[in-house]
Amino acid sequence: RRDRIEKWWRLPTMSSNPLKAQYARVRQAEDRHAEKLKAKAAKGSAGASSSSVRQPSYTKTIIASADRAAARRAALAAAERPAASVRVRKNDGSTLPMANALYQIQSFLKDRPRHSEASLDEIHGATGIDVGAAANARLDEALRDSEHIELSSAPGAPPRFRYRPKHGVRDASTLAALISRAVVTGVPRSELVDCFDGAGAEVDAMVAAGRAVAIARTDIKDQILFAPPTTAKAPPPLADAWHAVSTPKGDDLQAALLSRKLLSQDDLDVRLARRALAAKAREEAKKAARPRQARMAARKMTNTHLELGR
């Protein structure tokens, strides 16, 4: 009680000095706030040091799509770099890059009748490259991992390689089986014409006989082959009426879509802007790929020294 009386006695009263009394109240409030902050900090440090604090179970890292694409390109370049730097020695003592050796062996296997198998000695005699694992271990591994070459020998037998065409098509029967399964997703014609000799003619014969349906794609300049429909054909009058309907093209098609509210003007503007950006990107790529030519500086030469004597 004595301390409170002395503390009250030292404080100025409102009647004696109101300004000093207000300053004193402000200082007291600041002191109380500082004490609260100090107690809160001490409580937080004590809780962090204890083992009862819950730690996060995992850490989530967010990576942008551009960074992921750059990482994939870097990984792909790193995976392809060693194969490009490795050189393969031939019988005559010369060396060639791994990619060239793979291309020569693949061409030899592709030119064999019906893509028949070839032993290591046959490949060695035709290309001059020793394909054995003991001579060229990296080349043997690359052949086994190639998507265009397959190992056709049984386990434990001497290795024999053969060419693996696209989609596994080696003759007319496998071509017909592939197209018969192309119901939802079609097969590009360009991927089939080089599978075997006469593959293009066989595709044309299947389309003409109705055993395949070819849809022309003008954007990729190719034909997509599908299996023939299993449903019955439409009656001839209905088919004639269907084909008699003219489909607008170009600006008329866009106007028809807008009038029927199948396409909004905003969608059309976005589409036109996207096409303009794509065309600009193609032009810039062509200009970047075009070799730069040195410009010849034109200079005007005059015989001014001959005019001095006039």
Structural summary, described in words:
The chain is mostly helical. The chain has eleven helices and eight strands. Strands 3-5-4 form a three-stranded antiparallel β-sheet. Strands 6-8-7 form a three-stranded antiparallel β-sheet, with no helix packed on it. A two-stranded antiparallel ribbon has the order 1-2. It starts with a helix and ends in a 21-residue tail after the last helix. The model is unreliable at 11-15 (pLDDT under 50).
Summary keywords:
3-stranded antiparallel β-sheet; 8 strands; mainly alpha; single chain; 310 residues
Number of strands: 8
Distance between the termini: 123 Å
Number of helices: 11
Which percent bin holds the helix content? 40-55%
Stretches with pLDDT under 50, minimum 5 residues: 11-15
Indicate the overall shape: extended
Strand-and-helix sequence, N→C? Answer: HHHEEHEHHEEHEHEEHHH
Q: Order of strands in the sheet with the most strands?
A: 3-5-4
Radius of gyration: 41 Å
The main pleated sheet reads as: 3 strands, antiparallel
The overall pLDDT average reads: 79
Structural class: mainly alpha
Strand residue percentage: 5-15%
Secondary structure topology:
Blueprint: H1 2-10, H2 18-49, H3 65-85, E1 87-89, E2 95-97, H4 98-110, E3 118-119, H5 120-127, H6 137-145, E4 149-151, E5 160-163, H7 172-180, E6 187-188, H8 199-209, E7 213-217, E8 222-226, H9 236-244, H10 251-259, H11 265-289
Antiparallel strand pairs: 1-2, 3-5, 4-5, 6-8, 7-8
Can you describe this structure in just a few lines?
This protein is mainly alpha-helical and 310 residues long.
